[in-house]
Amino acid sequence: MKDIKDLKVLIDTDTLHKRIKILADEINAFYGVENPLTLICILRGAVMFYTELAKHLKMPVKMEFVTLSSYGNSDKSSGKVKAVNLALPDLENQNALIVEDIIDTGLTLDFLLKFIKTNCKVYDVKLAVLFDKKCARKFDIEPDFYAFEMDDKFIVGFGLDYNGFYRNLNYVGYFE
Ligand code: IMP
Ligand code: MG
Description:
This protein is α/β, with parallel strands linked by helices. 23% of the residues lie in helices and 31% in strands. It has helices at residues 13-31, 47-55, 107-119; strands spanning 7-11, 37-43, 61-69, 82-85, 95-103, 124-132, 145-149, 155-156, 172-175. The chain is globular.
């Protein structure tokens, strides 16, 4: 168990909130405020980013949730995506935006994107992530919207966990 005393603040709450508001404005401008959007949250990591982002969206929004797991109980990806809950409705003729905490190798989002395109009859699906670890990418996939670029360090807080803990922190930190 890592000790919270060794956790250093990397991005404070105010910076997170301000940047997410700007990203939401970008998304409002891209889709237009008249066009309905289905917002798909990847539980559990995206939960904080998802709610903060959703507050600032101005179009009619539907909220959907899936639960995926790729990390298991460590800070290294297991290389496999476990689909814990993939119950999505038919998204026929809809714009969908997947909301994820972080894109690392790209495995999780590659998996979900393919699943939605194959099974949900979606009109269009795009990706919004809080953090983009560009240097860790192994799959040919890029987010359409991202809030922060991140170097290859393991971070926690604001939804991101280590062994299931620290998701509730209102800031993002790293262990020294
Ligand atoms: P990917 O499938 O390799 O892109 O990994 C994405 C998933 O790994 C994310 O949904 C996170 O749950 C987890 N992850 C990747 N990097 C970090 C990190 O620095 N801290 C906590 N979780 C992470
Ligand atoms: Mg995750």
